[in-house]
Amino acid sequence: MIRLESLTKRWDNGQVAVHALDLEVGAGEICMLVGPSGCGKTTTLKMVNRLIEPSSGRIFLEGDDVTAADPVELRRRIGYVIQHVGLFPHLTVADNVATVPRLLRWDRERIRSRVDELLELVGLDPGQYGRRYPHQLSGGQRQRVGVARALGVDPPVLLMDEPFGAIDPITRDRLQAEFLRLQSEVRKTVMFVTHDIDEAVRMGDRVAVLREGGYLEQYGTPDEVLGSPATPFVAGFVGADRGLKRLGVIPIDVDRLEQPPTVGLDAPLAKARVALGDADWAVVVDGRRPVGELRVEDAAGEGVVGERMRPVAASVPSSASLKDASGALLLSDCGWVAVVDGEALLGVLTPASVHAAARRASPR
Hints:
Helix content is about 35%, strand content about 25%. The protein has about 375 residues and is α/β, with parallel strands linked by helices. A hairpin with a 2-residue loop joins strand 4 (about 55-60) and strand 5 (about 65).
């Protein structure tokens, strides 16, 4: 847990970088600090690990007031990841990851075991990458090593300053997904600086929106910030398309999925017509796997369903968001998307049901 009480930074010229910031990050949560340039995001992060000393206010780490603690000892309790990684170019990957354990004088075998564990945790094979140097890695691989190094001695708190900001969009997307997977395993308390509201709402359990001068405009869940902006500044910052962004943070409610008729792939058309009843279409299933759509106009005459169905490739897992479902809908010719558990059909979403789900989830 991190708690900031009236944390303030005033530079020598009198300019205020951070203004009386009150903020609490729960244990195991990711707090995203987001806002325009000059709003105090990085300054706040650096005050937490005392790379920058606050002018006033207090910093609590897991209940301990560390405002006046030894900064060097404090930083050994905190992992720190920056945009350009900051790996030591003359050290191997393994030696970079081992930096803090060596400073703490761990024995050689313990260090080797921990380095191997961490590299595997971030998706890098120790045997393949441990002896390489930073210049032999891609940007995404260097970022992974940076995260592994920050986790070296299993710190309770992780500070991340735009760690994925200088990476191409495809690699960035993969690293974001990989970090969320990693966080589900290690459950660190994370403060994460970004200028990108899309990254903030994807990554964060809570989002802190700051404006110039280090003023906190809103602190809430991604859904609250997108669905109910607290001030005109927040509304302008998150953008006029915040309704679309919200779809990315709303999960699919499997209990409210539409349940159209289903017909077997090998079923006679006569049986399919009975199953259709008054419906305009049915989902064609192979066992429990959705494979197509049978429309009422295609069900006349003799034959089997598989000969008349229209193949359907649009499906999303039940763990997906409404944004994922909407994307699949836009690529579908049939006007619905199957929601599956593994390969088994749970139900379908249509444009109307996506809209209804989004309205149900709107913050009140």
